Amino acid sequence: MPQGPLKGLKVLEFAGLGPAPFCAMLFSDLGADVLRIDRPDEGAQPYDVTARGRRSLALDLKAPGAADACLALAAKADVLIEGFRPGVMERLGIGPEPALARNPRLVYGRMTGWGQEGPLSDAAGHDIGYIALAGALHAIGPLERPAPPLNLVGDYGGGALYLAFGVLAAVLHARATGEGQVVDCAVVDGAASLMGLFYGLKAHGLWRDERETNLLDGAAPFYGTYRCADGKWLAVGALEPKFYAAFMQGLELPLEPERQMDRAAWPVLRTRIAEVIATRTRDAWCALFDGLDACVAPVLDLDEAPNHPHNRRRSTFVEQDGVVQPGPAPRFSGTPGAIQGPVTRAGQGGKEAVADWGLSETDAAAVRALAASPR
Asked: Does 126 participate in catalysis according to the annotation?
């Protein structure tokens, strides 16, 4: 049985890439009943943990009767999530207008890179382009060139998390008023929102529009990474004076507190800190700083992170079907979430879900007749 604070929430997901399936995974991890509509000839790959924990119906959305089948499911759903380009769902006959006509309380979540309208709305794109347009990419990386931060800032941070937030806000509204609505979530909008602090700092002359010249972008010697004697890396975030003092104490370097915020002194100070940190291994430094509030942490690789004592104690990572992967987040004291099931193949469990969703016998039979068997 599903468990988590979203138990009872029915989510109809149309399979896609990137932020939409990640958002659906978050809903599933917190107990929502997520039914994914897959293409019969496609489906989630075993390595794609963002496809975990839901059931799947394999439908050819262009087949006669497919639109009616999807609308019958939407009539029983609380939430619909789709990540196609603008206009695709309308052309398939399952856009917001007919879906909300069948279910006025439905929250129709639309996930795109550029949004439902605007000069770029129909253009192709990927995470790197969306965060470039938001100003985020320009601010990230070394002085020589911008560096893409995986797809964490755009697809997942600016996309999936904003979609989850927007959808749940609309669900609260629908439950209070009986009125559903469309949630237009664009990665470029979310990425721009994440940059709010830095636009504010820049407007007040506190942020330079140049990489590696600011407090949080690698310029400050007390906020960055350093290579250790064994080639591994140490992360330092000693921003506040008391943490900076503890950091310098651990390095056995003179404190000189007046130099911490002296930008002219940063290059020399960074070189001196780098020279000291290069004399010991990463783990030796971690042992030395253990117990000191210096905001120092090891830079762990993907094999090391799941085995760190803190992550093990909190079960931050779990193993599911032989794959080590992050567990559900955040934590709830009364209704803890859980991985509700493995990565599902196209068509797996979907016909059973149709029975659970309370469709009429006629609608259920029509959906089952269209659905392909698991591959």
From this structure: yes
